[in-house]
């Protein structure tokens, strides 16, 4: 076999692989303990951001035309940046967050029992009572009428 220039590179590679294997054998008994994740740490700036977004949403809950674009304008972010930040912090998209807050407010109003279901639907920004009822069922697992009956102390 004739000597070729690349054989030196191949031999150097074999030597490197051998060195890495011996290093790995030496490190086998020296493992670090696994890191146990704790509760996520959220910076004060992120808490303020979430509070401001929530405040904007709650101020506009009764507006059925309140959209993610309006939320982005009110919070001085682009729609995509708002989506990224909310997804990172809450795990929800802006539209999911708006819907969840509307449904939670609707549940509180139903617990009070001072409004009809159709009035509650309109108070929390749903144009259609059937759409409110379906989303309520998806979120809470029960229809608004049954939810009201289950939380009414007189029944």
Give helix and strand order, one letter per element, not per position: HHHHHHHH
State the CATH architecture of one domain: Orthogonal Bundle
How would you state the average pLDDT, rounded? Answer: 85
Q: Kindly report the CATH topology of one domain.
A: Arc Repressor Mutant, subunit A
Give the strand tally.
Answer: 0
Radius of gyration: 29 Å
What is the share of helical residues?
A: 55-70%
Describe this protein's structure.
With 155 residues, the protein is mainly alpha-helical. The chain has a domain at 44-151: Homeodomain-like (Arc Repressor Mutant, subunit A). The protein is 66% helix and 0% strand. It has eight helices and no strands. It has helices at residues 6-27, 44-59, 68-74, 79-90, 94-112, 117-123, 129-140, 144-151. α5 packs across α7. The chain starts with 5 loop residues before the first helix and ends with a helix. The model has no long low-confidence stretch (mean pLDDT 85).
């Amino acid at each position: 076999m004739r000597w070729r220039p690349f054989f030196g590179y191949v031999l150097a590679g074999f030597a490197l692989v051998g060195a890495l294997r011996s290093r790995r054998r030496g490190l086998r008994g020296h493992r670090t303990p696994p890191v146990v994740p704790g509760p996520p740490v959220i910076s004060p700036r992120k808490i303020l951001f979430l509070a401001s977004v929530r405040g904007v949403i709650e101020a506009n809950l009764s507006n059925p035309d309140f959209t993610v674009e309006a939320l982005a304008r009110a919070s001085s972010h682009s729609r995509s940046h708002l989506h990224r930040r909310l997804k990172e912090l809450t795990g929800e998209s802006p539209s999911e967050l708006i819907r969840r807050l509307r449904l939670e407010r609707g549940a509180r109003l139903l617990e009070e029992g001072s409004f009809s279901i159709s009035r509650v639907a309109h108070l929390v920004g749903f144009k259609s009572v059937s759409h409110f009822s379906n989303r309520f069922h998806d979120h809470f697992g029960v229809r608004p009428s049954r939810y009201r009956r289950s939380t009414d102390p007189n029944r």
